[in-house]
Specification:
By secondary structure, the protein is mainly alpha-helical. About 80% of the residues lie in helices and about 0% in strands. The chain has 16 helices and no strands. The longest helix is centred in the N-terminal third of the chain and has 33 residues.
Length: about 350
């Protein structure tokens, strides 16, 4: 009886979590994620700086960095859930592609033609096509278990949220054009056939370049957002994720924008507001492909504007305040929606 009592106490200790096996595994996963998603970009900053000082195009570093959050999430989950059936073809292919992006970004220092050249195009298009094939080869239930599924319902939800986000992008650019006194120039862009063609081309190009947008969203929305929401709740979790996401861009601020403080402020406003909206969409849909498509729309819209890209960037402190007000009006009410009130 004495031995049985001790065994019962030991079983209770394990299942009550006093040994905290799950907690230690989770910490291990988070450490792996942070190492890949955050520390790796900061380590490559030295190479990016050297390339920048040589007058090279450093875009390849930003494209490589977009793959690291998902790579970190995949490695973290593979380490923590070793016995699980997972989409290994897709995961291993994505990790290999991420490593190639990392390697090519470093090699762009001695070989500057890699950035913006045919090598970059091969990685973008070839990598995306390969991963689509690997994804289709995975079993449907495995894709679903790991947040990679798509269906006819996905298309319906995608149309809904794409239209909603497109309305926000167009509305924000129109308000910006009015504020800058350039509304007629913006309308002229909208009514040209080229604008419709550019929108269609960018939509199609998502499927040929999805890995970069998936690379961010699978790390932020699929992996990190649920962990934050579990600890802090939906509202605080989305805001904290937006702040983390903003500072993740720090290695790029030194080379793509200036002055630094202005870039930081603009990035914080943009990332927090988008984290609220995209977090809301993911809470409603639990579909990573929809938020990846929204991410692609956000990144490509300023290029579609052609001669008016400054309407979509934080070019001054006044525009930072303008972005804060407009994004606040559009997105902050979501924090008080039914989805954000539910557990």
């Amino acid at each position: 009886m004495h031995i049985l009592g001790k065994m019962k106490d030991l079983r209770s200790t394990i299942f009550e979590g006093k040994f905290n096996f799950r907690g230690s595994l989770r910490k291990k996963g988070i450490l792996i994620f942070i190492s890949i998603a955050f520390l790796l970009p900061f380590c490559t900053t030295f190479f990016m700086r050297a390339s920048y000082l040589q007058g090279n195009d450093t875009r390849i570093f930003s494209l490589a960095q977009m793959h690291y959050p998902a790579a970190g999430a995949i490695l973290a989950m593979m380490a923590v859930r070793k016995g699980s059936i997972m989409p290994r073809k897709f995961f291993i292919s994505f990790l290999a592609l991420s490593f190639l992006w990392f390697l090519c970004s470093l090699l762009s220092l001695p070989f500057p033609n890699l950035s913006g050249g045919i090598g970059e195009s091969v990685l973008i298009v070839g990598g995306s096509l390969l991963l689509w094939i690997m994804l289709v080869l995975e079993r449907g239930e495995v894709r679903k278990d790991w947040g990679l599924s798509f269906s006819s319902d996905t298309c319906k939800l995608a149309v809904k949220y794409v239209c909603l986000f497109a309305g926000f992008l167009v509305g924000r650019s129109m308000l910006g054009a009015i504020w800058q006194g350039r509304f007629p120039a913006l309308i002229e862009i909208f009514i040209t056939p080229q604008f419709t063609v550019d929108v269609f081309i960018n939509f199609i190009s998502f499927f040929l370049s999805f890995t970069a947008f998936f690379g961010e969203e699978y790390g932020w929305r699929y992996y990190l957002q649920p962990l934050l929401l579990e600890k802090t709740g939906i509202r605080k979790g989305c805001i904290i994720l937006g702040i983390i996401w903003a500072f993740w861009h720090l290695p790029l601020w030194f080379f793509y924008s200036s002055p630094l403080i202005l870039s930081m402020a603009g990035q914080l406003v943009t990332c927090v507001s988008l984290a609220i909206f995209w977090g809301y969409v993911y809470v409603k849909t639990h579909n990573i492909w929809i938020v990846s498509l929204l991410h692609a729309m956000n990144n490509s819209y300023s290029a579609i504007l052609g001669d008016l890209p400054e309407l979509m960037v934080d070019a001054s402190w006044q525009f930072v305040w303008f972005t804060l007000i407009v994004n606040g009006i559009c997105f902050m009410p979501l924090l008080f929606s039914k989805s954000f009130r539910e557990n």
